[in-house]
Design a protein that fits this description.
Layout lengths: L2 H9 L2 E11 L9 E7 L22 E3 H11 L2 E5 L9 H9 L3 E6 L11 E4 L9 H6 L2 E6 L3 H10 L7 E6 L4 H14 L3 E3 L3 H4 L4
Parallel strand pairs: 2-4, 4-5, 5-6, 6-7, 7-8, 8-9
Antiparallel strand pairs: 1-2, 1-3
Length: 209
């Protein structure tokens, strides 16, 4: 990477893009809605059960001009989802401003482990024990999505729910390989704690990205 590329990466004019694609949102409050996903490379939170570990090293993914990313995304759909990896590792101000200029609504899926940036309409906070969220993001999160891998994650979910704002939607979602074991337990938990909802990875059942 050249010195100029490093400067432009830091400023958000370039971003490492693992993939970008038009599909159906499979999780959370907007399940079933068409959206254009931009998956940015780079993550150091390090969840052992992560299903996109290939996203972790940003150097493995090509740098793209934010203007090009925005134009491609907006030409396909006006609902944009920024995901990763961990998208907040990067300065999202230039990309989100350009998307806004093109009339887009912008969602983000984040662990919250980095400082907020960008113009964001919907914030999905998916906290991880290996890199807890910054305090500020709890105040602005629209939905809390806790991944359930083992029984201790129910305790973690309850702890995280105490920190979010009163309007934040609460979702439990099984780690995919544990779904047969965990969804019955999640059903029982939600019935006892009805402020929570179950989120199912419907895109995997639909066999789409």
């Amino acid at each position: 990477m050249t010195d100029l590329e490093k400067i432009r990466l830091e400023s958000g004019e370039l971003l490492p893009v693992m993939e970008h694609f038009y599909t159906i949102q499979g999780e959370g409050a907007y399940t079933g809605k068409a959206a254009y996903f931009i998956r940015l490379g780079g993550c150091d939170v390090g969840c052992h059960w992560c299903d996109v570990k290939e996203s972790w090293d940003p150097a493995k993914h090509p740098l793209m001009e934010t203007s090009q990313i925005a134009e491609i995304a907006a030409s396909n759909c006006k609902t944009i989802v920024l995901t990763g990896g961990e998208p907040l590792m990067w300065n999202l101000n230039p990309l989100t401003q350009q998307l806004k200029n093109l009339g887009c609504t912008i969602h983000i899926e984040t662990s919250g482990a980095y400082e907020m940036s960008g113009i964001l309409d919907w914030i999905t906070l998916s906290p991880k024990k290996t890199g807890l969220p910054k305090n500020d993001i709890y105040e602005v999160a629209h939905e809390l999505k806790v991944i359930i891998f083992n029984n201790n994650d129910f305790i973690f979910a309850a702890e995280q729910a105490e920190k979010v704002n009163d309007n934040c939607k609460l979702y439990l979602q099984s780690e995919w390989s544990k779904r047969d074991e965990m969804y019955p337990k999640m059903t029982d938990f939600v019935m006892k704690n009805p402020k929570w909802q179950v989120s199912v990875q419907t895109h995997k059942y639909l066999n789409i990205p």
